[in-house]
């Protein structure tokens, strides 16, 4: 579980996060949704330590990420997996080398152990036998799967995904969403996903935080979201025709 409490962040006089509090649950796909420029990426960055919030706390299973000592912070960092937008693969390295990268950087495992772990992760994301291919030889959906394999190779407790469906067609997006949800449940990971894909909201929105201009205006599940009475969320949801047709 990750708890964030009263996270505020401003860049000079531009206030981006106005005091966000929420809880991201273990074994669930926790979505952060909202329109462009509303602070989703900045919030995610404050959670993983790329941007320090001006005030507020981030607690990883009760451990304070910013106020804990250096070892606690280091331990939490090692428990994080991140799926970057676009996959962020190294083009000059094979699929296997890409997935192995965190193990090479952060562990003392033997090459045999690392290869075994990489093979397990590649198999889990449906890419068995592709380790020797180059990123340029595989499709966009496969690249995302490689990114997921790399994000889980260290057996993370916390998984962060920034727009996992960007650049994918609708069918591939559904498959990637389903894979992230399966992995989250199977390995009991606290997964946090930034998205503005309404399909993802309905498919895997087990816990949703809606941001609007740096405030959190709504929290809940996909099953109840269409019943919201928050006007900003209604506007966000029902800009999508499919959902407009479902409007109660
Ligand atoms: N390092 C920075 N310095 C100054 N302003 C920033 C910085 N990072 C983000 N911002 C500003 O913070 C605001 C929120 O940006 P953020 O990237 O979090 O939006 P977002 O909700 O993720 O949007 P999108 O869906 O378009 O990615 C934007 O106005 C952005 O310009």
UniProtKB/TrEMBL annotation:
Keyword ATP-binding tagged: yes
PROSITE patterns, sorted: ABC_TRANSPORTER_1, ABC_TRANSPORTER_2
Molecular function via GO: ATP binding; ATP hydrolysis activity
UniProt keyword annotations, A-Z: ATP-binding, Nucleotide-binding, Transport
UniProt key word ATP-binding: yes
Origin: domain of life: Bacteria
SUPFAM superfamilies associated with the record: P-loop containing nucleoside triphosphate hydrolases
Start and end residues of each ABC transporter domain: 2-238
Pfam families per record: ABC_tran
Protein name per its UniProtKB record: Phospholipid/cholesterol/gamma-HCH transport system ATP-binding protein
Gene source species: Dyadobacter jejuensis
């Amino acid at each position: 579980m990750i708890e964030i409490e009263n996270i505020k962040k401003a860049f000079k006089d531009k206030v981006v996060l106005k005091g966000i509090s929420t809880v991201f649950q273990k074994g669930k796909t926790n979505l952060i949704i909202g329109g462009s420029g509303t602070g989703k990426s900045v919030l995610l960055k404050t959670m993983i330590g790329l941007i320090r919030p001006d005030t507020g706390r981030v607690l990883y299973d009760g451990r304070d990420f910013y106020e804990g000592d250096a070892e606690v912070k280091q331990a939490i960092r090692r428990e994080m997996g991140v799926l970057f937008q676009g996959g962020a693969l190294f083009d000059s390295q094979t699929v296997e080398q890409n997935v192995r990268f965190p193990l090479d950087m952060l562990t003392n495992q033997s090459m045999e152990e690392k290869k075994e772990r990489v093979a397990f992760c590649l198999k889990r994301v449906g890419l068995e036998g592709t380790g020797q291919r180059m990123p340029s030889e595989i499709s966009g959906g496969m690249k995302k799967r490689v990114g997921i394999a790399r994000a889980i190779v260290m057996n993370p407790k916390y998984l962060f995904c920034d727009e996992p469906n960007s650049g994918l067609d609708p069918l591939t997006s559904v498959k990637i969403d389903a894979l992230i949800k399966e992995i989250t449940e199977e390995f009991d990971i606290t997964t946090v996903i930034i998205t503005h894909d309404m399909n993802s909201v309905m498919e895997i929105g087990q816990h949703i935080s809606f941001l609007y201009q740096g405030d959190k205006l709504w929290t809940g599940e996909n099953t109840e979201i269409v019943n919201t009475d928050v006007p900003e969320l209604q506007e966000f949801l029902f800009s999508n025709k499919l959902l407009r047709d479902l409007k109660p």
